[in-house]
Amino acid sequence: MKIGIGYDVHKLVENRKLIIGGIHIPHERGLLGHSDADVLVHAIMDSILGALALGDIGKHFPDTDNSYKDIDSMLLLAKTYNLMVECGYEIGNVDCVIAAQRPKLAPYIDSMRENMARVLNTDKSNINIKATTTEKLGFEGREEGISTQVVCLLKNRD
Ligand SMILES: Nc1ccn([C@@H]2O[C@H](COP(=O)(O)O)[C@@H](O)[C@H]2O)c(=O)n1
Ligand SMILES: C[C@@]1(CO)OP(=O)(O)OP(=O)(O)OC[C@H]1O
């Protein structure tokens, strides 16, 4: 078994879609990034790459590569899944916490879990996603950005 952690932050700006967990969430601002800036998917990818001692998302999918411009991060998650399988591992479980003052994410959490479980080829019961405000404290609380922390456990494939 291997354990990994992931952490990602993206800035909230005007004229961008808010995409979290592969879901387009209606909001007056969205996350800024070279890709679609899916802060949850990026943190999950980093946790898996971390568990495998394969570095990080920027090493595998550099923001200097124009082919990743505005890319759907679910495609990058699928590539990370393939790397994990090549290394002989499968998902044990993934636990995530998204820090966002707004918008309310609870209505979207179940769909996000389904998306992650589908791409990671695991049961939905192995994916947990939580949301928290930061009680208006810090950059998330001031709605300057959204952060996500993830811990994953990988199991050897039999
Ligand atoms: N963006 C968010 C933040 C929180 N939630 C849900 O509200 C609950 C209470 O939040 P606290 O920050 O006061 O702990 C939290 O447990 C989430 O269920 C949310 O949906 N969207
Ligand atoms: C995903 C990549 C690549 O498009 O771009 P961003 O959307 O800027 O995301 P970040 O979390 O900074 O991680 C790595 C990048 O290489």
From TrEMBL:
Cofactor binding summary note: Binds 1 divalent metal cation per subunit.
UniProt GO MF annotations: 2-C-methyl-D-erythritol 2,4-cyclodiphosphate synthase activity; metal ion binding
Marked site: Transition state stabilizer: 34, 133
Domain 2-C-methyl-D-erythritol 2,4-cyclodiphosphate synthase: start-end pairs: 1-154
Keyword Cell wall biogenesis/degradation among record annotations: no
EC number assigned by the record: 4.6.1.12
Catalytic activity: 4-CDP-2-C-methyl-D-erythritol 2-phosphate = 2-C-methyl-D-erythritol 2,4-cyclic diphosphate + CMP
Matching CDD domains: MECDP_synthase (cd00554)
Self-association and partners: Homotrimer.
Biological role: Involved in the biosynthesis of isopentenyl diphosphate (IPP) and dimethylallyl diphosphate (DMAPP), two major building blocks of isoprenoid compounds. Catalyzes the conversion of 4-diphosphocytidyl-2-C-methyl-D-erythritol 2-phosphate (CDP-ME2P) to 2-C-methyl-D-erythritol 2,4-cyclodiphosphate (ME-CPP) with a corresponding release of cytidine 5-monophosphate (CMP).
Identification of the protein by name: 2-C-methyl-D-erythritol 2,4-cyclodiphosphate synthase
